[in-house]
Design a protein that fits this description.
Belongs to the PEP-utilizing enzyme family. It is an enzyme of class 2 (transferase). Its cofactor is Mg(2+). This protein is 46% helix and 17% strand. With 906 residues, the chain is an alpha/beta fold. It has four domains: 211 residues, ATP-grasp fold, A domain (Dna Ligase, domain 1, 2-Layer Sandwich), CATH 3.30.1490.20; 113 residues, ATP-grasp fold, B domain (D-amino Acid Aminotransferase, Chain A, domain 1, 2-Layer Sandwich), CATH 3.30.470.20; 135 residues, Glucose Oxidase, domain 1 (3-Layer(bba) Sandwich); 306 residues, TIM Barrel, CATH 3.20.20. The chain has an eight-stranded mixed β-sheet. Strands 27-28-29-30-31-32-33-34 form an eight-stranded parallel β-barrel, surrounded by eight helices. Helix 22 runs parallel beside helix 24, helix 28 packs across helix 29 and helix 35 crosses helix 36. The longest helix is centred in the last third of the chain and has 25 residues. Bound molecules: adenosine-5'-diphosphate (ADP) and magnesium ion (MG) (2 copies). Adenosine-5'-diphosphate binds next to strand 6, strand 8, strand 12 and strand 13. The site of one magnesium ion has 2 residues, from loops.
């Protein structure tokens, strides 16, 4: 089998291109593409993602032997273009070995730089370049990275700092210097020896001296890193399948650490936090790759504008800024001009915001990576709308560019302006990822997770973050770091997650051991409250009040664009006028599910409700229901008014009655007194209501069919409120929904009660209101017999929570004991209560819609339940021809976007 496993690139040619990202990974595909469009990139080659899968199937040795010839030939290819030789002691070629999956996973997998050095080669490198300091700086970096990634030299525990950093700190302390680049050549040499010794001591492994051995070690380590804990966690969070695998790119090194005409940096063609159309980024003179993102030295700005904004944030006067912290635009104007031209070129080429890495080696600019940049939800919307207005993309593309779930960030609360003005500013950092967050301070990722699980809101405070902190960052409300810039790990990851983040707050003195942070004389402990403003970089003392977000500007424009393409409309699940109003503001065009049971829970109402449930006779129940009627009427009046002119689908009483009765003695005593019964009698009645399987018990329409007086009262309340509103000049559109039917007769009986009650009300009032009577399809038998049911029911609403429960036979309340195992073992890929099971449950829905419409062609069909706000489920609803989805108010914009995307994707 002559399968091609390696693709080369270099000197304006490449065997791959941008659309081969599945095979070459995003990094590999774009390195090839940059070559093809004339962006300067060092030559190299990419080992495919298929090989990664092969590696985990067949093992290391087999794969190395399968790869050997192609890799060796490709190394020669680089040597030819670079005019140097891998492992040569006079004219050595050094390479980097980089990971790169189909979807970008920043910092999740490992990279090794300066590979190919050993004690002899380093001397050759020093001689060739006439720069001994550079040669040994590269060597110590290589030993450090290789030791970490390939030989497993990690910190011994979470409080410990990186073992290599510890050695560096020690050497620097001996000389009383503070910066890495102040070390002498001898000290760098000393570091190499100390590093190797420490590796041998901690891991028992010798450092490999043969460059080819080093290369194989590194390639295999990159594959292995695909299965490291943090990469697995990241994939889980982002829904990236393990089968995609990572590619490995090997390329000639270019050096940003050759002196003051060399540099390395990261840049974005637009602002990844706000979406603003300004080129921005950070760089470091005389440094290498990871230095910028690792937050070791605080980097400088690329553009003058960026530098001025940064200085303002740090309250540094312009003069001081210009001399001490000049931008690249000012310090290296020619290189800056080239960089600016190329970033424009790349954005134009990809029609999207680019996140780029570059290195300047002795005055020559090289690109090392470009990708569509990760961004916040706000930036996502702004960039899509701006690119649309600039004519770079069309409307449909703009819709597709926005990820529905990411809109969630735009709906998060923001600081209340007045509260913010009054808040005490502790210090400032960089506005790395916008948003408002308050919570209790924690210092470690595992604590963040634990506290979050215990229901607390936390802010993670770190000197800097690393990929190990991922789960903690996800659990936190916000992240603060003392070091690092706008492109630090914390900043990039936080923006990707849509988490509020303030980075590089230099005034923070974090003490991990004492679990305290000192800020200008104020010491805060673990558990103390702080608030963060990710848009200004301000850190406040205590909790600052927040208020709900609004749909305005680009967000509103995007929503308008959705309406232009969508067929499926979005309603909301709401039980109160307030929720109805919130949802309306977010663009809901009706209520898809108004549950009535929540209305019974306040004091007076629950008493009347209990009285109704606990009485033995029809008369007793009627008397209690009489008391409930005015309350219910008022509730429906409020909701119908808030949704004036839009349909409001009200579900008749649904939950099992035992949920309403008092289970504690005190409650039972009160009930006994009020009803003139003994406590024992009340207890007997409560006991009689308990069921073995309440979800399959006396609930839904079974209540209305055994106690028709409940349905009668609720109908009176709904239509009474509607009549009242109509008289006042409003336009109520009530829909009355019978829940949980499995047999058409169940519906019939309820419908009769509803219609006869309606007639009475309309007659008494002398006013008629149009209304519909429909049903919920949530029992498999109802779906199977939908054709019959549609003869009577005027609409269907799919209650997919119960339908999923009964189709799978999983009790939603008991699923926790096996669901995690099922997900782990891949018996299930997703929780079917969160993501609609399109194959099984979906088939029932599709069939019910088709058969229902055969009987009643204009049958309105919708869905309520958790799935109505989940993008992939919404798209399914579009495809099977539902009229609407209904979801909680805060998911309405998400569902609107998903619905529009479904229409555009068709
Ligand atoms: P990540 O996926 O974590 O960003 P990368 O593979 O992009 O890791 O590499 C880490 C850093 O090393 C980046 O800053 C990159 O620009 C730099 N780098 C990678 N390869 C080279 C090279 N051949 N020459 C110079 N710098 C490099
Ligand atoms: Mg990496
Ligand atoms: Mg990178």
């Amino acid at each position: 089998m002559s399968e091609k496993r390696v693709y080369t690139f270099g000197n304006g040619k490449a065997e791959g291109k941008a659309d081969m990202r599945n095979l070459l990974g995003g990094k590999g595909a774009n390195l090839a593409e940059m070559n093809l469009i004339g962006v300067p990139v060092p030559p190299g080659f990419t080992i495919t993602t298929d090989v990664c899968n092969e590696y985990f199937e067949k093992g290391k040795e087999t794969v190395v032997s399968l790869l050997r010839d192609e890799v060796i030939a490709s190394v020669h290819h680089i040597e030819g273009l670079m005019n140097s030789k891998f492992g040569d002691i006079e004219n050595p070629l050094l390479v980097s070995v980089r990971s790169g999956a189909r979807a970008s996973m920043p910092g999740m997998m490992d990279t090794i730089l300066n590979l190919g050095l050993n004690d002899e080669v380093v001397r050759g490198l020093a001689k060739k370049t006439g720069n001994e300091r550079f040669a040994y700086d590269s060597y110590r970096r290589f030993v450090q990275m290789y030791g970490d990634v390939v030989l497993g030299m990690k910190p011994v525990n979470k409080e410990a700092i990186d073992p290599f950093e510890a050695i560096i700190e020690k050497v620097k302390a001996q000389r009383g210097i503070s910066l890495d680049n102040e070390m002498t050549v001898d000290e760098l040499k000393q570091l190499v020896d100390l590093f190797k010794k420490a590796i041998k001591e901690q891991t028992g492994k010798d450092f490999p001296t043969d460059p080819m051995d080093q290369l194989w070690g590194a390639i295999c380590a990159v594959f292995d890193s695909w299965m490291n804990e943090r990469a697995i966690l990241y994939r889980k969070m982002e829904g990236i399948p393990a089968e995609w695998g990572t590619a490995v790119s090997v390329m000639a090194m270019v050096f940003g650490n050759m002196g003051n005409t060399s540099a390395t940096g990261v840049c974005f063609s637009r602002d990844a936090a706000t979406g603003e159309n300004v080129f921005n980024g950070e760089y470091l003179v005389n440094a290498q790759g990871e230095d910028v993102v690792a937050g070791i030295r605080t980097p400088q700005q690329i553009t003058k504008l960026g530098s001025q904004r940064w200085a303002e944030q740090q309250q540094i006067p312009e003069e001081e800024r210009a001399t001490k912290y000049p931008s690249m635009e000012e310090a290296m104007p020619e290189i800056f001009a080239q960089l600016d031209a190329l970033q424009h070129k790349l954005e134009k080429h990809y029609h999207d915001m680019q996140d780029m890495e570059f290195t300047v080696q002795e005055g020559k600019l090289w690109f090392l990576q470009t990708r569509n940049g990760k961004r916040t939800g706000t930036a996502m919307v702004k960039i899509a709308m701006d690119l649309l207005h600039e004519g770079e993309i069309d409307e449909k593309t703009a819709l597709k560019r926005c990820e529905p779930n990411k809109l969630d960030e735009l709906l998060h609360p923001v600081f209340d302006k007045d509260a913010q003005k009054k808040a005490k500013v502790l210090t400032r950092g960089l506005p790395a990822s916008p948003g408002a967050a308050c919570g209790q301070i924690v210092f470690f990722a595992d604590d963040a997770e634990k506290w979050h699980e215990a229901g607390r809101r936390v802010i993670m405070v770190r000197i800097e973050t690393s990929p190990e902190d991922l789960a903690g960052m996800a659990a936190a409300e916000g992240i603060v770091t003392a070091r690092g810039g706008m492109t630090s790990h914390a900043a990039v990851v936080a923006r990707g997650m849509g988490k509020c983040c303030v980075s590089g707050a230099g005034a923070l003195n974090v003490d991990y051991k004492a679990r305290t942070v000192e800020i200008d004389g104020v010491t805060l402990k673990e558990g103390d409250y702080i608030s963060l403003n990710g848009s200004t970089g301000e850190i406040y003392f205590g909790e600052v009040k927040t208020k709900p977000a609004e749909v305005t500007g680009d967000f509103a424009d995007l929503m308008k664009l959705c309406d232009k393409y969508t067929r499926l409309v979005v309603r909301t699940n709401a039980d109160t006028p307030h929720d109805a109003q919130v949802a309306r503001n977010f663009g809901a065009v009706g209520i898809g599910l108004c549950r009535t049971e929540h209305m019974f829970f306040d004091n007076e109402k629950i008493k009347a409700m209990r009285e109704m449930i606990l009485s033995d006779t029809v008369e007793g129940r009627k008397k209690a229901l009489e008391k409930l009627l005015p309350y219910q009427t008022k509730d429906f009046y409020g909701i119908l008014k808030a949704m004036d002119g839009c349909p409001v689908n009200i579900r008749l009483l649904d939950p099992p009655l035992h949920e309403f009765v008092p289970h504690d003695l005190a409650g039972q005593q009160t009930m006994a007194e009020e009803m003139g019964l003994t406590v024992a009698e009340i207890q007997k009645r409560v006991d009689s209501l308990s069921e073995h399987n309440p979800m399959l018990g006396h609930r839904g329409c079974r209540l209305g069919n055994t106690y028709p007086e409940i349905t009668e009262m609720q109908t009176k309340a709904i239509l009474g409120a509607a009549v009242q509103l109509k008289k006042e000049g409003f336009n109520p559109e009530p829909e009355i929904m019978v829940p949980l039917i499995g047999i058409v007769n169940e519906f019939d009986m309820q419908e009769q009660v509803i219609r006869s009650t309606a007639n009475k009300i309309f007659e008494e009032a002398g006013v008629e209101v149009e209304f519909k009577v429909g049903t919920m399809i949530e029992i498999p038998r109802a779906a199977l017999t939908a054709g019959y049911i549609a003869k009577k029911a005027e609409y269907f609403s799919f209650g997919t929570n119960d339908l999923t429960q009964m189709t799978f036979g999983y009790s939603r309340d008991d699923i926790a004991s096996f669901l995690p195992v099922y997900l782990d073992k891949k018996i299930l890929n997703v929780d079917p209560f969160q993501v609609l099971d399109q194959t099984g449950v979906g088939q029932l829905i599709e069939m019910a819609v088709d058969n229902g419409r055969k009987t009643r062609p204009n049958l309105t069909c919708g869905i309520c339940g958790e799935h109505g706000g989940e993008p992939s489920s919404v798209k399914f609803c579009h495809r099977v021809g539902l009229n609407y989805v209904s979801c909680s108010p805060f998911r309405v914009p998400i569902a609107r976007l998903a619905a529009a995307q479904a229409a555009v994707e068709e």
